[in-house]
Batch of 4 targets.
Target 1
Amino acid sequence: MTPWLDNLNALATGLFLLTAFGMVAMRQVRGCLNLFILQSVLLAASAVLLGLRYSAGDLYGVAIVGIVSKVILLPWLLRKTAPAEIYTRREVDQVLNIPTALLIALALVILSYFLALPLLNAVAPEFRGPNLPIGIAGLLLGAFTITVRREAVPLLLGLLAMENGAFLAGIALARHLPLLVELAIATDGLIVVFIVGVLTRAIQKQVGTTAVGEMAHLKETPAGGEAPR
Amino acid sequence: MNLCLLLLLPLAATLLVCLPANKYWAPGVTLVSSLMILVGVMRLAWLMAAGQSVMTGWNTGLLHGLTVDGLSVLILLLIAFIATTAAIFSIGYMEHQILTPWKRRLYYANYNLFVFSMLAIPVLVDPTLVWIAVELTTLCSALLVSFENTHEALEAAWKYVVLSLMGAGIALFGFLVLFAAMQTSGRGGAYTWSGLIAAAPAMPPVLLQAAFLLILIGLGTKVGLVPMHTWLPDAHSQAPSPVCALLSGIETTTILYVILRLFPVLHAAPHGHADIWAMVLGLISVGAAAFLLLQVSDYKRLLAFSTVEHMGIILTAVGLGASVAGYGAMQQVVSHAVTKSFCFFAAGAVLLVTGTRQIAAVRGLIGKSPLAGAALIFGGLAITGAPPLAVFLSEFTILKAGLTARHYLATGLLALFIVIAFFGIMLHFNRMVFGAGSDQASPEGAAFPARRGNLPRLPWSCRLALFVAAAPVLVLGVYIPPPLQNLLTQAAAALKG
């Protein structure tokens, strides 16, 4: 029965990687959100599969907490706090064009395999699997998403995708993380959404845009000069 | 005082300030709760310094309890002191912002939550829970940074949140790798700071190193280490001044404490190379900040860069070797926290008097407001390490330890950068306070909400806060009371492991 579970887990983590790519490239804000939800579902699926494979009950908790917080509560909270029309927005000019961004993303994935190698060699064989390298890739791609996107919501989703990546690697390495910690981290994710949503709303009201990547007032000005207004 | 009570006080204050009442209610509640925390922590520190066993909070299997040692009590003491002085300063300062009752409640509720999240870091012993507390410090202070609601403040808050949370994501991975390293070591203790030290010799070195570097980079972002510092001058200059005192004076130090907790773990491992990383990253931060200081045009940014510099000094000191420079590093933690918070109060006073943040727009301050001018020049001298003030003594201790440990190059560079920073800061402050020139109308005036600028007299609470905050800066330069000395020794010992 175990090869089946391993294969299914490989499938789930592979799809996880694809969603991370999608978030780099997807222009529609709503599409980005849907990809993030899919990614969270895949993370939960991987947790359940690993839980079955190694009969680690704590991982079911990870899956349930993940589904409730990221698939149900998070989109609801985002809709409550962030301005509504943000979903209909479409980013036309990204910092990099999409093919270049995807190529760099590909290079990051290869890099993460090399980064994961020494770690994989250090742990017991049962911890080896696709989760660790793909988790690191998810972390790096999330960070990359933040650098190339300018809209507030994709930036926020990039932050949360970094956390998803850390967790995908974490469930393979640290199977017996206490449930309390899981719950606290999930709550923390929701507070992140709330605070960023409130900030986005304030920025939209005050500055008139949600393309937060374009704000650049705070710089060093030559001594004696006025700050650009 | 029970440690749970310590955490419950700011939470209770958060709820209380939300009650609708007159305008003295929220500042009053905040001040009373900060004072109670300060008294409790001072008693805790007193017991600790006397070598008595300190009671812990409630101990359930889930949380591994709440425990303190010398290092965490030292940090608690600083948090409590600065939270109190900043609460006093807030009374007068915040009334000169446009404060609707709703805004006032928002400010004080966030203030107390922020203090809560900082107090949680030293008393928690489970690293993953500490990570959550670190996240909470970012989230609770984000709305304080954006409080003035200008374009600049919002941009600063956005940068602060995004970069800090990116760092936190990397640090989370680091803590999970650390957990894995602990489980692989086969010494199944609890996942706590002391459990980690016990398990360290059997951990796979690769995992331990990887975890250390991930956490150093991740949390180093929030400490403001170069090259992850880019958000810090923005956030620490745009927030209201009492919040800047908290952010710069103590929040950075509290996060640095989490990194410092890893040093004994790496020292216990056979191949831990923590010191060299700390020294290199620390020196880069000090050096870069010293040169970046020279070209700023906003005096609050100047102080923010000085925070980057001081975080670098502390990290370098730890890197020189916890056994030789640990005491100096702890002394620097204390002197930086008390001095930097004083500097931001002084900057806040200048802002109230002149209504501008531009260095070039402030000239001849001493004639206009002797108290603000004197405070600014005193703060400048204190933070750059002029004798006989607190920072001078601690920097001297560190440099002496560096020479004793025969780290001539690192010590020489450190001394050079400190001197450059001295000239950078004093050049600007000297011109602002004594310089001749027209005190032109502030070019930035519009950025200020009404009722600010050109205050004839500083509010009494601001004066009081300045005097209270100045006391330790003066005293600790010439005399360190024996209990504090004990505490510093214990903290340095905790750093050694």
Target 2
Amino acid sequence: MEYLIIIISTIFINNIVLAKFLGICPFLGVSKNTSTAVGMGAAVVFVMTLSTIMTYLVQHYILLPLGIAYMQTVTYILVIAFLVQVVEIILKKVSPDLYQALGVYLPLITTNCTILGVAILVIQNNFNLLQSVVFAIGNSVGFTLAIALFSSIREQLDNADLPEYMQGIPAALITASILSMAFMGFAGLV
Amino acid sequence: MEQPISLKENFFKGIIKENPVFVLLLGCCPTLGVTSSAVNGLGMGAATAFVLVMSNLAIALVKNVIPDKVRIPAFIVIIAAFVTVVQLLMAAYTPALNEQLGLFIPLIVVNCIVLGRAEAFASRNTAVASMIDGLGMGVGFTFALLLLGTIRELLGNLSFFGYKLVEADGILIFVLAPGAFITLGFIIATMKWLKERESKRTH
């Protein structure tokens, strides 16, 4: 039950993009069409789950025993950068199909703040390993949901007759605002 | 051939012409996340500006020592080190602000402005020019955050820097998540509209 609550709250109520403002860059950058948006989402689900496990282990078995928890930011960003590289190399060898689908998005993920953000949130919330994994999955699915919905709306926006200064980013941001309002309706679900 | 630009121009380009938020659209996460009030926007802007200046300076100084292949990871470690410094300083001296900004302080590491300037400017310019560039971009970023924070606070809370102007309820939505998106959307639209009008006038 506890895990179900984590999942629902991370996907709908505290959606990482629309309520917590993490990962806005890819949210605006790679949402021009639905298939790339879903590809980016899938890559985030994959990397976020792995990186949360890794950073959790690093925090509890290296940083805390050594008493250097203040090195958190530096260590995490290195672990994430390293992980993304390894995932890229392994995927290329083991599953060329999956690499083809996710490959282009992987380098972008190192600087995606959702990954580092979730890794730090897990520590701040004092989750155990299983809770952390569920939290990471929930958040990454929430990211995918938001970006997929957003991109399908943006595809329609291209056909809309807007004044020139509203085209592109301004229209996209106002759309995001309305989407975010819609997600506020989920508040009180849990 | 690119004209060598003066220090003054170098500083001012970051504020209006190449404003990181309104024109280049970099660093949107903290821009939207922390600007529910003007003070938060100012604090976040100052923290980012500090990291920008220091990391630009450090990178410009060591750029010849770093092999090209490990350039990006090396930059990230330098940036992360300065972010840690800011994090510890803020926790010690401004605990209330630190609490408000929370997660967004460590996330300066992955703010695209900082790495972007390191890669685009500091890795090929002198230390002084890089510092000025960092300062200009930092001030431009702070200005953007301050503007957004002020508008949201005025509309959402009817207050200015925490000082209540009218004893009434504001439009709550502006301090919540949707308000951030919509305010930034309209600011960018206004800037585009002004630019459009100006180019029409010159033709």
Target 3
Amino acid sequence: MSIRRLPEHLVNRIAAGEVVERPASALKELVENAVDAGAMRIDVRLSAGGIDLIDVSDDGCGMTPADMALALERHATSKLPGDDIEHVATMGFRGEALPSIASVARLSLESRVRGADGWRRVVDNGRVVEEAPAALPPGTRVRVEGLFEKVPARRKFLRTPRSEYAAALDVMKRLAMARPDIGFSLEHDGRRTLSVPPGQTRPERVAALTDRDLAENSVAVDLVRGDYQLGGVAGIPTFNRGAADHQYLFVNGRPVKDRLLIGAVRGAYADFLARDRHPVVALFLDLPPTEVDVNVHPAKTEVRFRDATLVRGMIVSGLRRALEEAGHRSAQPAAADALGLWQAEPVASPGPAMPLWSQGGEPRAQGYAQFHDRRPTFSPPPMARAEPAYAPLPESVSHPMGVARGQVNKTYIVAEAEDGLVIVDQHAAHERLVLERMRRALEGGTIASQALLLPEVVELEEPACDRLEERAAELAEFGLDLERFGPNAVLVRATPALLGHGDVKSLVTDLADELAAFDQALSLKEKLEAVAATMACHGSVRAGRVLSVAEMNALLREMEVTPHSGQCNHGRPTWIKLAHGDIEKLFGRR
Amino acid sequence: MKATIERANLLRSLGHVQSVVERRNTIPILSNVLIEAMADGSMRLMATDLDLQINETMEAASVEVAGSTTVSAHTLFDIVRKLPEGTQVSLTASDGKMQVVAARSRYSLNTLPRDDFPIIAEGDLPTKFELPAVTLRQIIDKTRFAISTEETRYYLNGIFLHVADDGQPVLKAAATDGHRLARVTVPRPEGAEGMPDIIVPRKCVAELRKLLDEVEGTVEVTLSATKIRFGLGTAVLTSKLIDGTFPDYNRVIPTGNDKILKIDPKAFMAGVDRVSTIALEKTRAVKMALEPDRITLSVTSPENGTAAEEVPGEYGSDAFEIGFNARYLMDILSQIESETVEVHLADAAAPTLIRENDKSPALYVLMPMRV
């Protein structure tokens, strides 16, 4: 059999396999082109999840008829003016997308440069079928119909329109989040499912695309190190989710799915969240184009950093710093709703509040439900830094957590702050305080390690052993002494004394897996923290203990100065606040 | 079955067998005790958890009808325990029930068929020897604290017994949890030559120790590579052995430790106990600073502060510091009965040997802690 050079249309189809695997990936390429064209508005229409139709129109710079012909050639692009692939400033640059899509669908391209006439070019599965003048506003409009209709092998692998639509929506959200200055809209089968105006700020855009409550339950991340700049929003730990689907990373405005992000986010939130809860974050990393390689994969969802350790360090410390500032903030949807109302003129009548609360949990739930839909749209001032509109008692002025007024059910401390009623779960709060104290002690001293009489040999794969060996010094600081023992095993000589008679083998295996997945030895620290947390739990005030007013006040004052006191060790809130306005709402006075 | 037994007799025997029975069982009959009344006027009780089995023989006041049945061991034990002293207990089994009648109390207990009761097949037990109960008590007392509870290294969950020839024939018992080791050496009893190396499981050790309190004289030990049987007067304890290889512990017993500390174990232990009060953590690390004839114990707690105490001791080598887990140290020191103890040290990271003197049967090895 002789070797032959493949014809152009086959080459395009092969390339289409890499770039376009499903409607969502075609949509991504088209919207990215629109973004690169400098559009201010991008409107997308889909039908049947994009399988039948993808229609992207923008108000960007447009193309001349000659450019349009060229744009449908392979490796033709306007985005690399020089020959320098190291300095990619646009989303696309490979010049593959349009010809690839055109080779597997019916693609009609209409474009008009400002001050010139529009032109239209239709390509059906790689063959030009129509070329004519067209009437349209300045910009470009691309219609892709019948994707993979002539490629049954691919068509078979498409999912249902619903799940194709879900993928397309995710792509749109990521792209829209990356560019808050551009307006986006998405219409699916005639129903408008996404619409964001141009000229938003990042937090507004992120909140609009994820969860409306995020705006009030997040902190801003802002960290600059040399040429690297990290910005974005991070949800506070009590605002968590069951799945890690709301974690976004943008590198130079490009949405990226990277395991580096997952590991770094987990590391940053490790002390605040249970293992199966996930925070909401959207991080924007800007760095010189030479520091990152985006040309890893045709779909460009993966990138390679020249200095991955620095990037990870920045994400972890940026998030940590932002969360430190969150201090004792605590939030949950109900408290956030209540918070939105606090600015109303307060009525200083703490008296009726007590009988209300003694009715149990149900009135609270109803009360919140009533004013849930009347949430104001403005962004409220940060919790616990209230302006003194009215001071009911002089001593409460300087205390954001208020002054203890009593104890309910021997479990909850009721305090009166200047802006409302604070309810504290005494066990959860004290547990957190004890843990923070213990953690400071742990950080201050060295971790005692118990040497093993019979060193334990743990057999692992060679790369896993290499990774562990590389981090041996770091692990030794946590009290785990490892030594390489032949190519496929490590020898454990000492373990952290706190862990007692743990299962050494599974600990080391877990660590090796984590180093592979996240490049971080999380579980060792987590295990130590877990022991500390158990001890903190035993060493703290239990629910059901009667506290004196002095004790309650001492607890509140300590919460104000302890970082991360707003959530317990499992990410639940330790306190909630009911503003005066909310109390009035509950009585129907306003 | 119909028999009458003195309450005290029944209570003592039930007390022996009921602790073998686990509180919670997935196989219902394992909660039960097998009761057999013999025509010759004796009774047999039997309980098992499938790994460990106990047989107890006692004298009945009278056996009217020989027979057997099984009832819940813990329930019967509780009933007999609460009966007034000196009563005669009558047990009658018929139609799936067992009637317990004593004084004015009457119970009717559900039974399970005795044929379903599992019995450990002992097989052939070729090795047979006798040990004085005192010696066996000593072996257990001095080693059991070091038995590991970690299930992943199951081969450490027991006492390792083996015979050796160190100039004279000896029987050695060792236990370790990976952090410390305890070993007792006794002269080899007659008949133990050629004995296989065995690991006696923790639960068997615990039950055996309880039974030994009531035994004087000797205990008859018969064993094979997989089973062991202890004959203790009226009780016979049969256990499966741990099927695993005990690590070669002789390697970790240091022989070249040249820094020797001689100290009063009681004073030493009391000192360790006092300074470790300040530590809040589970692992109370105590630091020991050794200078010629001056031993300083200290504990630092990040929360509470520090504690220090000087203990008198005889030490003549270079000064250095070493850390230990206070609990481990106290576990070992509490086993020492003599006036002085020898602590053989090398450096802050090497295993430390502790023993009464070079003639004492017991020897302990402890790994230091890095603090």
Target 4
Amino acid sequence: MPSLLDWRRRWHLRHAPPGPLRDYLEQPFAHPRTDYRHQEYLAIDLETTGLDSRRDLILSVGYVIVRGISIDLSTACHRVVRIDRSIPEASAVIHQITDDQSAQGGELIDVLTELLPVLAGRVMIAHHASIEQGFLSHACKRLWGRELFTPRVIDTQVLAHRTFERRQIPFKASDLRLHSLGSRYNLPRYGAHNALSDALAAAELFLAQAAYRDNGKGLRLGDFLC
Amino acid sequence: MDIELIEIQEFLASRPPFDQLPEETLARLPKHLSVRYFRRGTVFPPEDADQSYLYILRRGAVELRDPQGELVSKLAEGDLYDMQCGDAPQDASYRGMTAEDTLVYILPCADLSILRAEHAAFAEHFEQSVSNRLRKALDVMVDTPNAGTGLMTVRVRDMVNRAPITATPETSIREAAKIMSAHHVSSLMLMEGEHLAGMITDRDLRNRCVAVGLSIERPVREIMTEKLVTVDLETLGFQALIAMTRLNVHHLPVLDGKRVAGLISSTDLTRYQSANAIYLVGDIHRTNSIETLIQISAKITELQVHLIASGATANSVGQAISAITDAITLRLIEMAEADLGSPPVPYAWMAGGSQARREQSSHSDQDNALLIADHAQPEDDAYFAALAKFVNDGLAACGFIYCPGEVMASNPKWRQPLRIWHKYFANWIVKPEPMALMLSSVFFDLRAVHDPENLFEELQERILERSRTNRIFIAYMTANALKTRPPLGFFRNIVLIHGGDHDQTFDIKHRGLVPIIDLARIYALSAGIPETNTIERLQVAAERGVLSREGSANLIDAIEFIGTLRMRHQARQLRNGRGADNFLSPEDLSPLERGHLKEAFLLINTMQESLGQRHQAGRFA
């Protein structure tokens, strides 16, 4: 029996213009009862000029596919996006993308056209995923007139938050940052701060969080979804 | 091409064997990897893998155990687990488990095969056994001398260049002397068919014939030296030099298998400039003043730095320095006797510890004792007390500091007749109390430096007879030796020294060399082996079958590798005008050296385990 989610996907599909967005919606979304070890994921991170998805712009995109419990580095991808305004200094300090580098980057439409087929059918993994969801969605709306429908998302920050609450561990906001969580799980610390290394760090964090939850009795994708 | 897996590339680039790959291959390599994560306590390698992989530890630690549950290997950050990619079927009996939360990069064995096929230097790493890797590391270390040729690298083969001059032992002394004159040689080898029966030198003609009025018509057999120390064609020039220095002779017969290949003289050796050890010894023999001895011994430090720079291994340096200490000791004894007159009864001057093992580094402590003939009278002790004081003070003035444990001949306790020494050892062996164990590294490594009447031989025979037959003693010694374990996990910073002057270092002598020295001593004592030098002990132990050939060769490589690292560390400090110590920082080592050092530590650990089991050391731990 088709699920409510699948009905909604097909509704979006009918309204999507032909092109990347429509192709993306052709793929069914993952089922929450799937064994998480047999699911594929796309860990993704964006660097942006700010935090407001309506006013700020995507500067770069990094992503890598996670197949079950293994990150496939051959799929690692990093793209810088050309933007039509100068990069605010405040954000340049963080992501270190300069105007010159941005000028060498690809057009947003090309970057998203490349990304969407990779995301299709996979579960998105991101740390503080609302940023990625918001920016991608808004970009799609500007490019193709429709928002991006991303109902299957694992937010590693939300998972960490749940863990702290469940175990009644006192924590500060800074404890929920990607790198602080990484060191809790003995993950490598990547010096460079770019979209791909953060996407990779989020993917590794997900593997660690999954390993800590997995007691060998089997876990379902639904146990991780937002 | 993306820049971003650069951090993974850099991680690999700094580790052997990936450091052997060209830049462009390294840049592509991360794209062939996958990443996996295992909680602490997970079975390793994972049972759910879809194919065979090479595992590269990025974070965490893995312990591998044999079927008995003994730790055989511990993998840490940067280490590889390649058992699934071996040519031989993998040994499924080893069980691994992650000892920490662990993140690994995995490379399919098929990809590894391609890399191995395309990059020979990279492939080499996987083809060598642990012991081969260690041996090679040592070769690399000693084969890069600053001074191209020298006694460290030249072999006796290259210095023996003419057919040996020989005669039979039945030749008359006159005829022998004529042969020597005709060929302008100062020594003659005497052959019985293919067998080397003896040798005479100019000195023998003078001392044993002319001076005593022996008829020159007598056969030369009557004045020849029969017990000959020989070297073979592959002996390093340096080792020949050490042998001559030790024996105080100037000629050594050279054998090729059992056949005589020629003769090598000290003149042949001194043509090579790094022969300054023998110059130092020659100077010592000639001098009559303590001031000169002090000046000469001040050069020992310089000699150590020079020898290491010219590619000598730790054992060669130890041999050279110990030979010099012996010579200084002997000279001091001669000076004391010249001053005090002849000894009232025979005695032997014994050296203990590193001097006895011929493993000294510049200016070790002095450990020595006096063995006096049993018929000595109580009043004779005044003579020996004075002699001991003279020699101990002389050694101290030469920079061999007084032994902190007071193990010196000037201490009445260690200046005793043979029967008391017998009693001491009987006691130590029957009741190996902590005190005895503390002294064991001094007194169970014992050698006579000056012993004209061969008193020491009897003592040594009795010690070895007792130690060989007393299993409880051996078990005690073993338990004690196992208390010093190599710092297996030092890459993980858990056993580095924290705080103080030696922050973030480890003691390479105490944690690396002493365990091997202790092992070799136990093999020697349990099998009645008289050798004192650690490498010789290990060699003889293998010949007698108390230690496997493989185990012996590996331990010898390990002590040479660790010892040479230590000597280099000290040479570096001495060159910088600092005092030499044993505190090495892992950061002073290349990743490759760190890797080899860890393998050496693992090897020591394995050998300790097996010795512990054999001698049931657990009963006394």
